[in-house]
Design a protein that fits this description.
three-stranded antiparallel sheet, 40% strand, mainly beta
């Protein structure tokens, strides 16, 4: 739960979890993007922290504006 922001800096996209972000835990959580569910090709960044502020650089091949959701996914 909590707030997630999509941030652009110097032409790069980041997913930023804010202070109120919390995740109840799971094995190997990955930050991904999706529309009505996650898209496997976007699941490239390991979740750094289950609580609070953290930031994740998205690979340049991913166009985050094509997606409507940030998803924490576990394979």
């Amino acid at each position: 739960s909590g707030t997630v922001q999509l941030v652009t800096e110097d032409g790069k996209y980041y997913v930023r979890m804010t202070e109120n972000f919390t995740f109840d835990g799971a094995p190997l959580p990955i930050v991904a993007l999706g529309n009505k569910g996650y898209k496997k090709e976007t699941a490239t960044v390991k979740l750094k922290s289950n609580k609070g502020v953290s930031e994740y650089l998205l690979p340049s091949a991913i166009q985050p504006t094509d997606y409507s959701h940030v998803v924490i996914w576990c394979e």
